[in-house]
Amino acid sequence: MDCEKTGNVDIPSAGLRILLVGHDTTSLSNVAAILEEHSFKVTAIQQATIALSILREQIDQFDLVIVDVDMLEMDFLDFIKSTQLIKEKPIICKTIFSKS
User: Which residues are in the Response regulatory domain (predicted)?
Assistant: First the structure.
């Protein structure tokens, strides 16, 4: 995988396979579109239980998991613990904060 050097960190430049998990369809599609514009391969899933099932069956198909901290089905920390029990994968937690 090709990488670009940013400071002291190597960042993959393209082709990273990402499992994106979040219940908000608008946020999910927006984040997926942005990642795909940068040549990342994104699989977007709305339900945490389905995402865990996919990871159990196809763990080697993903390089990174991005999960929304505001999941409806389960606490995101439980999701992360379950993911790490399957096989260690890097996980990024994201949220969308809005002032009302």
Answer: 17-100
Give the model's pLDDT for residue 45: 93
What does DSSP assign to residue 29? H
Structural domain including 22 reads 14-94
Output helix, strand, coil percentages for the chain, rounded to the nearest 5.
40, 25, 35
> Number of H helices and number of E strands within the chain?
3, 6
pTM of the model: 0.75
Positions in the chain short of pLDDT 70: 1-13, 85-89, 96-100
d(C-alpha 52, C-alpha 45), whole Å: 10
